[in-house]
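Assemble and predict.
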Amino acid sequence: MPKLSYLEAIQQGLDQAMEKDDDVFVLGEDVGKKGGVFGVTLGLQQKYGEARVLDTPLAESNIVGTSIGAAMLGKRPVAEIQFAEYILPATNQIMSEAAKMRYRSNNDFYCPITIRSPFGGGIHGALYHSQSVESIFANTPGLTIVIPSTPYDAKGLLLASIESNDPVLYFEHKKAYRLLKEEVPESYYTVPIGQADVKREGDDITVFTYGLCVNYCIQAADMLSEDGINVEVVDLRTVYPLDKQTIIERAKLTGKVLLVTEDNLEGSVMSEVAAIIAENCLFDLDAPVMRLAGPDVPAMQFAPTLEDEFMINPDKIKIKMRELAEF
Amino acid sequence: MEIKMPKLGESVHEGTIEQWLVSVGDKVEEYDPLCEVITDKVTAEVPSSYAGTITEIKVEEGDTVAVDEIICLLDTGDEQNETEQEQSTNNQAEDVKEELQNKQTTGSNNIQNDSVSANADGPKNNGRYSPVVFKLASENQIDLNQVVGTGFEGRVTKKDIEKVIKEGTSKTSSTIVAPKDSPKVSQQSAYNEPSPGSSIPVNGVRKQIAQNMVNSVNEIPHAWMMVEADATNLVKTRNYHKNGFKESEGYNLTFFAFFVKAVAEGLKAYPLLNSSWQDSEIVMHKDVNISIAVADEDKLYVPVIKNADEKSIKGIAREINELAQKARNKKLRSEDMQGGTFTVNNTGTFGSVSSMGIINHPQAAILQIESVIKKPVVIDDMIAIRNMVNLCISIDHRILDGLQAGRFMNFVKTRIEQYSIEHTSIY
Amino acid sequence: MFDYKSVGLEESDLKAMYKWMDLGRKIDERMWLLNRAGKIPFVISCQGQEATQIGMAYAMQEGDISSPYYRDLAFVTYMGMTALDSMLAAFGKRDDISSGGKQMPSHFSKREKGILSQSSPVGTQIVHGVGAALALKMDNKPNIAMATVGEGSSNQGDFHEGLNFAGVHKLPFVCVIENNKYAISVPDSLQYGAEKLSDRAIGYGMHGEHVDGNDPIAMYKVMKEARERALNGGGSTLIEAMCTRLTAHSSDDDDKYRPKEEREELKSLDCNLKFKTFLLEEGIINEQWLEQVESEHKEIVNQATKEAEKAPYPSPEETYTHVYEEGSLDNA
């Protein structure tokens, strides 16, 4: 099986989705001729033509709104927002329109759009190219938010998102684009939306996380296994709505839970995970639910010392994991 | 000076040398281009970070190397300072690392210390229990005070209590409590003798007994003494009251009750035998709580007669009876087993005439009452047939020596010999 | 009135148009009555804009997509929302086709008739109309998509973004600004700086038309032309129709910011009245015909009102339905 990078996996997914279904089309800034500023959509316009891979004007609300209109007529648009930070002008269309379309029309209309956007830090992007924005949308019923952590999941979740008949926000970690490589099946396959995944089993502590932090947590866990500490790493994959069942099940096994996210601490999706565990697992908890997240400052900064202070890395995770294991 | 492959883009991890623009021996200024590099995003010229002379080209044209790998070396004439600087930054980094590691190890050391001290006579955990620990404790009737905590600050962790549940120690109320020492045989009911050639798994109660024995022998320097007492009058006295007692009270007036009474009085007179060695001090117990051994099949229990010095012979007999019943019916509670300050063992019940008991840690001594045997003895230069009984005491030689033990033993012996129908009150 | 013959209309068309204008008005008036009687909580009116709405509706064809705004009662009634549909929505009943009682009234939606679902944040429907036009173009359909909007909402970012996109791709899209000169209480002088909103078309690379919205025939003409233009590759059109808002903004507004004289004068500008007068003067209709229409519409409105009043409300369980596609997620 060929090894694909996270980026290549997404690219392959897009290609296969467009090949399978003529109603799938891609739109966004620079996605056509240039193939995207990271190269994710490279080659698609050559293959499928300008009618199906559109270079849009610089207007995010339009990108999403047009997608919604086309979707209401039966198309399956895959919109790209160039950086997660720039999704904010489209927030109205996403939350007021797309998320509520099926509900407000009482199932007469629905909105099968996928919005892809690169997020996350560690690439010297500073305040406006490093943010995590999932928490903004993570209590809007009608929306689904997925964040893959591996090339395999990236392709499968993308295809599942495109197949979904409801709007999906698909956040891809930009540092993972070329950093993560693994074997990815060449065939068309999907990974289920709404299901978390145990990426590493362990019986001392349970760590819930998503995005690039999954890889970092596994690295930290491998280091700690040399000291006899057995860490379980659970990848949320879909961060909204959360897979409550898996969260409760896995948290109960060890009673020691660590929640890791790159997002700011207060109000991240991990706050909801903590609430779910507190509500359902009280008599199985052996330690307070711990969180490791970015500090509560506006965003990741440019200077490397400042970025390192903000960004999560395996060493920070390892220290926190150990603290919990020894509690 | 080292020139390294620079990071030429946000998500770029490697680069290929397309073309070298300098050769070995060339003099370059700061920012002069050294080579052309291709990455999957850009093609770029790599500028020199220093002025100097190229001394070595480490990567060939067309080769791909990872970011931060050395691609060439140059001599700036400033070697010394650089390496020193590097050294100091490296040292700093290492210092920080060491500090971190030290913090971590002291952390875990503390925890170990805590658990060690928990193992000693102090509290076994810090008394803060998490929800899952409470739940497991109540489901399995574990006395949390007895669980050793290996977690943060001596906390009982889920794994600690799971361990305890597996091994089955220190349980509370209405369950069988771990018995110790030698048995007083009460009833042999349906006891499965292990067959030769098989192996018996050591767990639960037996494991605990073994552990206690080992602890006791390891810590306490045992010394041993035996005296012979004339129990003839005791026998007469007891036999005198025996039937009437059984009729009116409904249970047996055993010999053992008389011995225990004598010991209780002895302890009152010689309180040093009613003590414990704890670290660097000897703790004298106020109460005289006598542990007696009761056997049930292959299990040994050592319930306690509390405040034996305040009880009459009847009271002691009654309590012996009750405790034995409870043991037989598996109804001994942890309160019944706690607080013993001195142990009296009725080894005579299986015909022993002399035995060396192992002290019931952390007590100061254990007294074995051997068989009462009719023997010919010399009294006033004449031979008489008397009921003689050996009393064997093992003492903690840190606390007691021969003199104290001897005095105590003499007292007890005398008390036993003084029992008489006329002067002894059962009630 | 514009010359109807020159735009290919016949007398029967004019009569039909009047009837639709009248039906819209009658349904509207009944809703105000119900509101003032405390039977329905909210009304937002089309009165005074029927000419604009029926004029443009009459030029639409089967399969065209519309993304109207909340004042388009007459328009959507022509396009396929029955009087009963509107009444059910007004009462918030279960069988309301727009939303099953989930949305406020006048949030029109009927997929079967190509009416896209509307929301309350104004202006968002423009980009939806543009997106629909994109889909129609991709599929080479002989249809257009249109969106209507008030002059206030035409200042939303989505208006700019949507029209710009439509202009770039020459989409089969028509945007109609129903300019009644008031956005709730804010008058046009405070709403936009341009002299004519139709001039914005130049900025978006499309055709612009400024029209008397009170003349349904003129309205029909520009809409018909816009439609043909769109389907012939001529690109999009921005139409600004000048019309009159006869009522307050909604039943929750007292209209006091408009001086009394102004409100009195409005009555003379009533497009229905004007068209009726015109038709009578031309001899195309007579009083008898008008009486017939009157009683016919009264019957329709009464019937719709009665049925809607009796119809059941949605059950509380419906709170939880259709958040996601059924069976797609465990939570759905």
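The mean pLDDT of chain A is 96.
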